[in-house]
Amino acid sequence: MKTQVVIIGGGPSGLLLSQLLDKNGIDSIVLERRTKAHVLGRIRAGILEVGLVNLLREAGVADRLDREAFLHEGTILSFEDMQFGISFKEHTDTPVTVYGQTEVTRDLYAARAAAGGKIEFTTENVTLHDARSDAPYVTYTVDGEDRRIDCDFIAGCDGFHGVSRTSIPEDVRREYEKIYPFGWLGILSETPPVSDELIYACSSRGFALCSMRNAHLSRYYIQCDLDDQVENWSDDAFWSELKRRIPREAADRLLTGPSIEKSIAPLRSFVCEPMQWGRLFLCGDAAHIVPPTGAKGLNTAASDVHYLHRALTAYYRSGDETGLAGYSEKALARVWKAERFSWWMTSLLHRFPDQTPFDLKMQQAEIEFLRSNREAQSVLAQNYVGLPY
Length: 389
Ligand code: APR
Ligand code: PHB
Description:
The chain is of the alpha+beta class. The protein is built from 13 helices and 20 strands. Helix 1 packs parallel to helix 9 (about 295-320) and helix 12 packs across helix 13. Adenosine-5-diphosphoribose binds near residues 32, 39, 163, 297 and 301.
């Protein structure tokens, strides 16, 4: 087989890239290790920056989002019972869109199917070859049959545990990592959200987040120990702990119900440099990971996809290679800003086991400065709604 771009990974990065390339007349094949049902079974965050929404519109994949999503013009931060709002509208005149990332992936799969996009599921032994040449190729196995695809370029959209990043030689890669000493225990419940806006809560018992998917589906998280287990948490135990961490007036109006999903996720910051090697280009979680506090995972993958699809389009349309040559530098410039914001929000709002009384005072002073200073709130708002591409 031959195609122009082989895309490894059928998550949001790979699907969005394939759709945008298709819109620009560029052929691609997506290789996905899992089944479509498995990919769509993943519960992910639900905050979309305007840049991602614009990309989905450019890709022709925003119709359901426009019908079902809702806009948030601010968020709430709390410290014990003290709470304050930060207005995105006042500081940036830009909202964020609340729409499950799983729904984004579902819409992308539907769009690829409607366009006759080529996606191979349950692929095994995906291996990249000759990425440094001008004739790279990918081999893999599907249904016991060995296959080969010759291509012009390879896009590594296969997430943190994929094969693309490690196809770049170890002595070429520079990896930066921070593993946080806690996780997030999250639940999904068919209950109305406790608040019209998200509540990011810092408390002496740890962090909590009150989020949502729609008016009837809520998403809540509490910080938990790294070695904690979902089995340790009954629904009642979760709700009781959440109420202890959010402001009393929110706890008093919280409507609880059975969890329809419950899971624990670890938190890490990670960046691989460079994000390209020969004709291999990394996008999304294949190249970088953020703690979910700033809701930057998919939104940073989106800017990677934006840069790469424009670079590939310029190459095929006019032979212009400047976008491809500068992809890694361009993408990393925005990646590191998202890493900084996600690390800062995580450091601001979580309890760290080794925190000294002085550290706690610094954390409280940081939150008080944020509460009382317009410019500090503006900086948070600019980062949260999404820095420019
Ligand atoms: N071969 C083929 N596919 C693979 C391989 C492989 N060797 N390894 C991983 N994959 C697939 C995974 O099964 C997954 O579906 O690559 C896909 C990667 O998808 P994600 O992990 O969701 O990463 P990405 O598409 O970059 O999404 C970025 O979006 O889903 C949100 O917040 C989430 O941070 C994440 C962001
Ligand atoms: C979510 O709704 O899952 C969510 C929202 C905001 C975050 C993280 C997760 O910062």
